[in-house]
Amino acid sequence: MLKIMNSYNILMTSDEDTVVAEYTPVPKTATTYQSEAELEKEFIHMLEQQGYEYLPIHKEEDLKNNLRDRLSELNNYNFTDNEWERFFKKEIALQNTPFEENPVLLKTEIVQNEVGQFPERLECDDGTKRNIYLIDKKNIYNNKLQVINQYEVSKAEGAKQNNRYDVTILLNGLPIVHIELKKRGSEEGVTWRV
Fold it and tell me: Distance (Å, rounded) from C-alpha 175 to C-alpha 145?
């Protein structure tokens, strides 16, 4: 038996699939004051209810390890330590490339235009080459959404300045959006950095 469609939101449609969601609001009493920590906790909880996985990642090494795990899972391939280091440095961090100083444009193009794929850019230890996908745009259900909070990066780790991001959204382990939350009543509002 079909339910009336107006009780559902259509999230995505294609020739093969339709993704719908039903939202039932949780009654809450509004407060006049909410700290940034409470806002952050509530925001993460809302994302978890929508299928995001929360991870307690706060440092770069943990972020890199999670990225390796997610890309291994997405590509059904276990990187050796040498393969991962070469792939990460050259294709993700763009070290020793012409794009090292200003990688934003190239990274955006890779994710958006190359369908999240590095064609034959992983040189395996056995000498073969392999395609590695960052995002599966053909079957979006293969992608994994995660959320982390209070991620810190410092100048000592190679950043231009010391930063701590309130909330970061990861797509297959890649930090896609950094969100800076401000407490209610703050004129600064919410900052999204992609």
Answer: 10
Q: Same domain for 74 and 125?
A: yes
**Domain annotation covers residue 176:** yes
Task: For residue 145, list its beta bridge partners.
Answer: 171
Instruction: Please check whether residue 134 is in contact with residue 174, taking contact to mean a CB–CB distance below 8 angstroms.
Output: yes
**Cβ(68)–Cβ(84) under 8 Å?**
yes
* CB 171 within 8 Å of CB 143: yes
- Tokens for 25, please give them: 């609001």
Residue 158 lies in a domain: yes
Domain that holds residue 169: 24-58+142-193
CA 51 to chain centre: 13
16 within domain boundaries: no
Coil vs helix vs strand at 99: coil
pLDDT tens string 109-146: 666 665 555 555 788 999 999 988 888 888 889 999 99
Q: What is the pTM of this model?
A: 0.73
